[in-house]
Amino acid sequence: MPENSTQVEEMVFYCYSNHSVPVGRFRPRVQWLGDVARKDGSVRLQDVRADDSGTYTCEIRVLGRSSIFKNYTVLHVASARRRGSGFAGAQYSESTGSSGWGAILGYVCSTIFLALLLGLGLKKFLQKQR
């Protein structure tokens, strides 16, 4: 978490020797998709909710070395009810109907963005280790 953050830091994954162990409140909804050997730190968070909004940190510590690499991703999830308020929201709701495609699109975009940032962070870290 950034220094001025009021959010509590909690672990989502613990990875070692190319094994990943989900932990904490995200355990039933998070899945490791990455491959450290390919410099890929992709994760998938399923059933995203508004209270999942926050700053996520990818922190890499290499055993036997003092260097620590951190990369931050901010995830903002808005509920369908909140998006529907106001004039612009009403237009949006009419154009998409009640099928929830906006929420699905937001989830997919957020997941791709998070995976890209984590992958880039892992790639930079592994390049520094060479």
Features:
130 residues; 6 strands; two-stranded antiparallel ribbon; Immunoglobulin-like; 23% strand; 33% helix; elongated; alpha+beta
CATH fold-level name: Immunoglobulin-like
What is the CATH domain class?
Answer: Mainly Beta
Number of domains: 1
Order of helices and strands: EEEEEEHHH
Quote the average pLDDT: 72
Query: In whole angstroms, how far apart are the ends?
Result: 27 Å
Low-confidence stretches: 85-98
The CATH architecture assignment turns out to be Sandwich
Q: Number of helix segments?
A: 3
- Mass-distribution shape: elongated
Strand order of the largest sheet: 1-2
Based on DSSP secondary structure assignment, what is the total number of beta strands? 6
Strand content: 15-25%
Radius of gyration: 17 Å
What percent of residues adopt helix (DSSP H or I)? 25-40%
Describe the structure.
The chain crosses the membrane at residues 101-122. It is a single-pass type I membrane protein. Its main location: membrane. Keywords: Disulfide bond, Glycoprotein, Immunoglobulin domain, Membrane, Signal, Transmembrane, Transmembrane helix. By secondary structure, this protein is an alpha+beta fold. It has a single domain, classed as Immunoglobulin-like (Sandwich), CATH 2.60.40. Helix content is 33%, strand content 23%. The protein has 3 helices and 6 strands. The chain has helices at 80-83, 86-96, 101-128; strands at 13-16, 19-22, 30-32, 43-45, 54-61, 68-75. Strand 1 (13-16) and strand 2 (19-22) form a beta hairpin. The chain is elongated, with a radius of gyration of 17 Å. The two termini are 27 Å apart.
